[in-house]
Amino acid sequence: MTIVKLADVEFGVELPVFEPDTSLANVQRFGDASGWNSPRFTDHEHARKEGFPGALVPGIMSQGFLAAMIHRWAPGSVIENVDTIFRAPVIVDVAHRISGVVTDIDEDTGLVEIDLTLVNAAEETRVLGTASVRLPV
Amino acid sequence: MILDLHAHSIKSDDGRAKVQNYCQWITTRNVPIDGFVLTEHRQFDFESDYSELAQKFNLTILKGAEVETEYGHVLVFGVTKPLTEEFDFSNITLKLADVVAAANKHGAVAVPCHPGRVRVGMSAHIEEHGVPEGVHIVETFNGGSRGNEDDIAQTMADKLSYQGIGGSDAHIVSHIGRCATRFSAVINSELELVAALKSGEFEALTFKEDAA
Question: Domains along chain A?
Answer without folding.
Answer: 6-23+57-134 (3.10.129.10)
